[in-house]
Amino acid sequence: MSDTHDKSPKGTRIVALLGPQSSGKTTLVESMLLASGTIAKRGKVNDGNTVSDTSAEARARKMSTELTPVRMNYLGDDWVLIDCPGAVDLVHESHQGAMIADAAIVVTDPDPARMVALGPIFRFLDEHKIPRILFINKIDAAQGTVKDLLAAAQPQSSRPLVLRHIPIMKGQTVSGYVDLVAERAYQYKLDQPSERVSMDVAQNAAAPEARREMLEKLADFDDKLLEKLLEDSLPETGEVYQHLTKDFTENLIVPVLIGGAEHQHGVTRLLKEMRHEVPPAAVTTAKRGIPAGSLAGQTFKTIYAPHVGKISLMRVWRGSLKDGDTLGGHRASNLQDGAEPKLAKGKVAVVDTGNVVALTKIEVGHAGDIATNDAIQKAKQWIEPPHALFSVAVSAKDRKDDVKLGDSLRKICDEDPSLSITQIAETSELILRGQGDIHLYIAIERLKRKFDLVIETKQPQVPYRETIKKGVNQHARHKRQSGGHGQFADIKVEIKPLPRGSGVTFGDTIVGGVVPKNFIPAVEAGVMDNTVRGPLGFKVVDVSVNLYDGQYHDVDSSDQAFRTVGRMVMTEGLPQCEPVLLEPIYDVAVYVPNEFTSKVQRAVNQHRAQILGFDTREGWSGWDAIKAAIPEAEMRNLITDIRSISQGIGTFEAKFSHYQELSGRDADKVVQARKAALGAAHG
Ligand SMILES: Nc1nc2c(ncn2[C@@H]2O[C@H](COP(=O)(O)OP(=O)(O)O)[C@@H](O)[C@H]2O)c(=O)[nH]1
Ligand SMILES: [Mg+2]
């Protein structure tokens, strides 16, 4: 691709395509590239030949698995389109793309029942003041009229949705549209720009009323326009465009377009609107609080590529970056086109304001970090990765890869900050956490492709513990006579339950040196040895052990003998104390749109939950928060269940709360499984 040809005065502008999975974002990118003449023939997601969706993981799944910047020049203006994944699991990835965009195109299916999925997207865009166009796609397959669709979408948006054109119907299908601003009618043409037809041919009686509705929405933000409308005088087209541009840029309204990406319908219209209304980088720069200086760029994505190493995708917010410039205190060379989906192709000499560059062999921080000539700093505004919702235990299939495992996992988490890795001491497991099973399995495929690392996964173990329900006084004697001098130790202890959270305590009330002071630490060590695994097979907690009597032998007693008897007293004593299983309980808040609350509540109940009540979700109109206490053992598929009921958008937050007794059949199952596992491990 050529670099700095006919420079557009606005620099390179960026739009991010957001929207639910499978709404047609990748297809729309393809259509925009075709309409702008960037490509001569459109690829198809199902044929695996689109310009974005290039990774092996995306091709295999026929869905976008990472953000992909794609370059386009339309009527002399430079653009980067960021195709974002729509899968809820990959939300952080799409937010990274949106954070460096000047505007977003939100693509939706034409189905009223699915509009609820737009809520979190609009919220995110509100929060970061990102202007957005709503593109109602697949209009060829609409469920209901455009009016129905808009009525279903409006409650999801805090800003008024302003329909910019209305469909022309031919029987049950949409055959074209009337542009309400220009008052022109267009007929869709398959795989071509629409053809202008006369308004008479269009016979669209609804147009004047729809136009008036549009103007009334604009008048809410302008008193002069309101006066005009009240006096029944209509504004000129030019004036309407001015209002639309201003209100869009200032995020007061959401313009709505309709079309069909797959058939090139409404695509030129979208490009024209972008051309006139999407603000340049300078406007976004001011909004984002990008630090002053002649040059500023922001890393928005880290990628590790085989043979290349770390690649940082950066948007240049201010100034232009030239080969050899100092960036973050180091020399930047070998600048690559950051909007070339296959990357590491297309070396560029200069990266202009607004444009994206792929940097290698230079440290420019993590996603979100801002580089100026001499420093790298955290951004004032960036996004935190969402709470983890799903986890698996991972290990290298081949032991010889153990060394590589840690480093590769760290890189994959750097690429995707919504992944995290934790070593759990109690279970000795390495846990990979993320947003759902798809998320984690994509990560595991990446590990294979990028680092030739084959991962084995297991369901993470629940760190059960055990305690006792009653106390006992226990005597133990260790005596062995063999050859020379033997071993002798004798103790009496009182074992007692303690309140939850106390751990294991050891003390003594020995008088008269019946157990000499110097042996007492050995007794304690022996006792502790046997709290690592109690009679049920788990770590023993909330138990006090007091040594109150004993005997020793001048020659045969030793630390070793007392340690042994310390172990014995626990092995013999604990089973008589009514051992009981403890399971970890989490405080969970499940968040769903209130239309799903009762159904989700029922589903949550299936997870042995104790429902603590529900309330409205703070700051989220139309959403509820269901509070519950849920055992960790029941959390595994919680997100899958919530999503299956809530159009994929329900979510939860969980925090460890406490350990709680588990008895009955559930406990028996756990203990049996543990015995089997320990038996297997010990051969
Ligand atoms: N009927 C119809 N299908 C479309 C249209 N646009 C996209 N699709 C189909 O919708 C599916 C998902 O498209 P894709 O671009 O991968 O969606 P994304 O997940 O939003 O990127 C694909 O099978 C497309 O062929 C359209 O305008 N009409
Ligand atoms: Mg896609």
What would your notes on this structure say?
This protein is an alpha+beta fold. The chain has 5 domains: 13-279, P-loop containing nucleotide triphosphate hydrolases (Rossmann fold, 3-Layer(aba) Sandwich); 291-377, Beta Barrel (Elongation Factor Tu (Ef-tu), domain 3), CATH 2.40.30; 390-458, Alpha-Beta Plaits, CATH 3.30.70; 466-577, Ribosomal Protein S5, domain 2, CATH 3.30.230; 584-667, Alpha-Beta Plaits, CATH 3.30.70. 28% of the residues lie in helices and 30% in strands. The chain contains 18 helices and 35 strands. The strands form 8 sheets. Strands 2-3-1-4-5-11-6 form a 7-stranded mixed β-sheet, sandwiched between helices. Strands 17-19-13-12-20-21 form a 6-stranded antiparallel β-sheet. Strands 26, 30, 32, 33, 34 and 35 form a 6-stranded mixed β-sheet that branches. It is elongated and about 110 Å long. The chain starts with 12 loop residues before the first strand and ends with a helix. The model is unreliable at 1-6 (pLDDT under 50). Residues 25-26, 53, 63-64, 83 line the site of magnesium ion.
Question: What are the SSEs and their pairings?
Answer:
Elements: E1 13-18, H1 25-35, H2 56-61, E2 68-74, E3 77-83, H3 91-99, E4 103-108, H4 118-127, E5 132-136, H5 146-153, E6 161-163, E7 165-170, E8 173-179, E9 184-189, E10 192-197, H6 199-202, H7 207-219, H8 223-230, H9 237-249, E11 254-258, H10 267-277, H11 281-288, E12 296-305, E13 309-318, E14 321-322, E15 326-327, E16 330-331, E17 336-337, E18 350-351, E19 356-360, E20 370-371, E21 376-377, E22 390-396, H12 402-415, E23 420-424, E24 429-434, H13 437-451, E25 455-458, E26 465-468, E27 472-480, E28 487-497, E29 504-508, H14 520-529, E30 539-540, E31 543-551, H15 559-573, E32 579-593, H16 597-605, E33 610-616, E34 623-631, H17 638-645, E35 651-662, H18 664-681
Parallel strand pairs: 1-3, 1-4, 4-5, 5-11, 6-11, 26-30, 29-31
Antiparallel strand pairs: 2-3, 7-8, 8-9, 9-10, 12-13, 12-20, 13-19, 14-18, 15-16, 17-19, 20-21, 22-24, 22-25, 23-24, 26-32, 27-28, 28-31, 32-34, 32-35, 33-34
Bound molecules: guanosine-5'-diphosphate and magnesium ion.
